[in-house]
Structures are given as C-alpha cells and as structure tokens.
Amino acid sequence: MKPVNEMRVQFPSRSINERLARSVVSSFAAGLDPTLDELADLRPAVSEAVTNCIVHAYPDCIGKIGLQMRMYANGRLSVKISDWGVGIPDVQQAMTPLYTTGGEDRAGLGFSVMESFCDKVRVRSKAGSGTVVTLDKYIRSRVTEEV
Amino acid sequence: MEIKSWLEDDTLTVCITGEIDHHSAAGWRTSIDREAVCAHPAVLVMDFSGVTFMDSSGIGLVMGRYRLVRSWEGELLLTGLSDRLRKMMTLAGLDRLPVWGKKGEKKYETC
Hints:
- The complex is a heterodimer of chains A (about 150) and B (about 110).
- Chain A has helices at about 15-30, 35-55, 90-95, 110-115, 140-145, and strands at about 5-10, 65-70, 75-85, 120-125, 130-140.
- Chain A is an alpha+beta fold and about 150 residues long.
- In chain A, strands 1-2-3-5-4 form a five-stranded antiparallel sheet, covered by helices on one side.
- Chain A is globular, with a radius of gyration of 15 Å.
- Chain B has about 110 residues and is of the alpha/beta class.
- Chain B has helices at about 20-40, 55-70, 85-90, and strands at about 5-10, 10-20, 45-55, 75-80.
- The radius of gyration of chain B is 12 Å and the shape is globular.
- At the A-B interface, helix 1, helix 2 and helix 4 of A face helix 1, helix 2 and helix 3 of B.
C-alpha cells in the first residue's frame, strides 16, 4: 500500500529534541484527524523511542536521529525512528519490562510504553551499526468516520 | 529549576508542572531532592495536577523519590493524577505501592 502522505526529518540526539519529535509527529498525525486520546497514546511512544536513541544509541556523543512518518488511507500511521549508534546486542532482553542499563532513575519501561500505546512495535538492531524502531498506530476515528 | 513546594506538619508537597520527559526529569529530580533532603519529611507529596505530558521518565522520577524517602522511612504520596497519568503509573505497577493520595483530601491540598 502506498502512503497518502509522508515526511522525513533528522535531528541531533540532544534531549531538547524529545519534545520536538513529539510535536512533529503530532502535527503530522493531525492529517488523519486523530482523537485527543489517540494523540496522547502516540506522544509518549515517540518520546520513548527518541529517548532511547539519546540515552543508549549515543551514550557519549551527539549522533543523528531520523524520524520518518507515513500515513495510509486505511488510517494507519507508521513512525520509524532510526539511529546509527551502538545498536542493541539483545533486543529481546532490552524489551523486557523493567530491564534497563540507564541508571537508577530510568524505569526500564520504554518499550512497554511503546507496546502499550501503539498497535505494533518492530525493532531491528545490529550491534555497532544502529537501531530502527517502527511504531504503527491505527487512527480509528478516521476509519469510523468513513464507514 | 524552580519548584513550588511547601512544608506543613512534616508533610512536604512539591508541585510538578508542564512536561515530564527525559530532558526535564533531571531538573525536577534535582529540585525535589534539594527540598526533600533539607526537610526530611515524614510524607512527601508529589502533586501532578499541573502535568500536561509524561512518559516513562515520570515513572523513574517517582521510583527514585520513593527510594529516597524510604531511606529515612518516610512515605511517598502521589496526587493530582489524571486518568492518562494513572494509566502510565499503572504500567510500572506503582498502583501496588501505597502511594496514591486522594485528590481533594484536605490534608494533601493540591497545587
């Protein structure tokens, strides 16, 4: 299926950009006329993925984070968050709730939040070359409106 | 980061406002800990009624403050949680801790 709209942005892995990433995705998603609840699901999920890049992918340097958004006629919104950082040696372990390598004030719930608030989460990672997280969220309100 | 807080009857209330993400959490942590370590309160109340966004950094902030007040056998209470924030806290199992303050309860006046 071809996307009806798409957008790509790239920004440095500075924590100030967590908020920017949420705003960009919210603005893009507005094209699917989401409910406030759907937006409120999407924003923390994006925030978690971007925070992971900042905290884990580039622990000692500022690297690039890519954000690709696509929307489809069936109401699916797909957000791909890419980095070219250290990669995740064991994706399954990283996705385990409460598992963290981020220090005592990190809850280890980033992937749990993504999985709870999105319809589908895919993670591809290679140690040493980076990680791609894809979040899929169906904007139901639009689907209902068209019926 | 400036934080609104007050101490009354050995209860320290701190008001968190705006967005809690990884970027802002460090500032909140420093401000809350500065107040809490000075006051060593029997009860630390974290008031979330002014919070407009929170991701799992907020959960980490709560868990860290829980550990801090437990170090002097204090209690932690959370108030002013919207349904959305409560959903996020529940993900972490924080609903199993005795941390829920009742909104509107006089003792824990909200911000």
